[in-house]
Design brief:
The chain has four helices and no strands. The protein is mostly helical. The protein has one domain.
């Protein structure tokens, strides 16, 4: 966790400021604390969504079939597997 403090200034219109102030009061925190917490929560949610891969049912079924289907190594991989097996026996 970083101990360095960075500053971030934000301009709001009067209605936005009032809305945030009322919400902060309900949460029992300062406006700055409320905004910081809400922004962090939203950022984490967005980053989590962006790190997920979402597939349609059709695409999921195709992916599942591909990873669970029979696997036949190509010539290069078959050769590497044989070479590895020889090294392990030696």
């Amino acid at each position: 966790m970083s101990t360095t403090t960075a500053r971030f200034d934000l301009k709001l219109d009067a209605d936005e400021k009032d809305l945030l102030a009322r919400a902060a009061t309900l949460m029992g925190t300062s406006m700055a604390g409320f905004v910081r917490s809400a922004a962090k929560e939203k950022a984490q949610t967005m980053l989590e969504q962006e790190s997920r891969v979402t597939l349609s049912k059709r695409d999921f079924l195709a992916f599942n079939t591909a990873i669970n289907g029979a696997f036949a190594p190509n010539a290069a991989l078959a050769g590497a597997l044989k070479a590895t097996a020889k090294v392990k026996r030696a």
